Predict the structure.
Amino acid sequence: MNEILLHIIIALVVLIGAMSVSASLIWLERRLLGVWQDRYGPNRVGPFGLFQVMADMIKIFFKEDWIPPFADKPVFVLAPAIIVAATLIPYAVIPFSPGIVVANLNIGLLFFLAMASLSVYGIVLGGWSSRSKYPLLGSLRATAQLLSYEVFMGLSLMGVVMMAGSFSLEAIVEAQRGLWFCIPQFAGFVIFFIAGLAETHRLPFDLPEAESELISGFHTEYSGLKFGMFFVGEYLGVTFTSLMIATLFFGGWQGPLLPPIVWLPGKTLVFICLFILIRAALPRPRYDQLMSFAWKILLPLSLLNLLATAGVLLILRK
Amino acid sequence: MNILFYMASIVAVIATLMVILEFNPVHALLYLIVSLLSLAVIFFLLGAPFAAALEVIIYAGAIMVLFVFVVMMLNLGPRSADEERSWHPARVWFGPFLLSAALLAELLFVLRGGGGAGFGEVSPEEVGIALFGPYLLATELASMLLLSGLIGAYHLGRGYGEARRHEPGPVEESTP
């Protein structure tokens, strides 16, 4: 009985933690962008402007939740829910410290990839069900982009899987006891980072919602709480991608001195800041550049990485 | 476990029925995705987590996205659902119904004979070892087939673009 209660508590804490961290990222992103662009950012509401998130939430709750009369209503309502669900569910497989994990699947990594490929539907259906041209264009772009980047997101992780000899995230973290995988799998790390940026459609890769050409892309017709769900879904994705990078390439909860439960969030925060820094630093490429970069550079690179890792492992085993 | 299995099976059957009965193509595709997801749950319950994950990643996550993508590009609206409705009078259902009823009877007959899954859990390693051990030839043949499909698609897409690029435009002609 106690065991079950413990599991429920862990699941609830992970759920609430993920949601509140993602919500407060809105504030963090605006403040950090302010710092890097030599201005203040939101600093009026509460200490350091921390309550800005609450103010924004209250505002978004009371906005009119409008569904366009020409939209496909059931799909229109379903789309934001799909995006939030598909980005929240994989949090279950992350080991936060030894023993603290919602579900220790032996296919944990595949589970993450499966959920990542399902989250495409949120964007695709959101754009399609709006039945107007900018969302449709945005979601056409999103589909092509996410499909192509998914291909080598999976491939870039196979090096890690080969070195750890398992798809289970707990085993992968254990295998990094001596050496973090970011060193032998540096190419895999860089490719996964780029693919993660594209999968969460963050700024250098935010062509699906490029404001200057598509108004705001696939969620142009959304308002109120449904828009908020798309927004939170994006930050959930950023948090989760950072968590995955920390778990797969930077030793997960392992680290000296401090307890494990401090190490993983700390590493994750570093990568979240890196995500935001990249947003502040890089311009948006053209769409064809984005696609040819994916297929002509990143895909061959990840295949080469896979081949080299397999070769080295074979030689070492003999 | 049994309750989960029956729940997933009921969802799969209802979703698959709705794929056939739905007139709006995108809604039908959504039901197909639900059906594939519940199939993945069934695979997982039967002790094949690897097959379940691949079912979601490949079928639900990649192939069906492409289907939705194409339907989206065709931009079929409510009008096409009406068209679809007009193409399906009751008498069209008769033939397929008879054929699938025969199949159902056959399936029930086989199921009555017992047999079924009673295997232990199959881990990803075992699948990999089986694929690159006893079934190596089949795996290689399948990968060759996929490669030829890839090259064919690339060629078709490229041929069109190249032909257009070599068409001499009036401005290009006059410049030395």
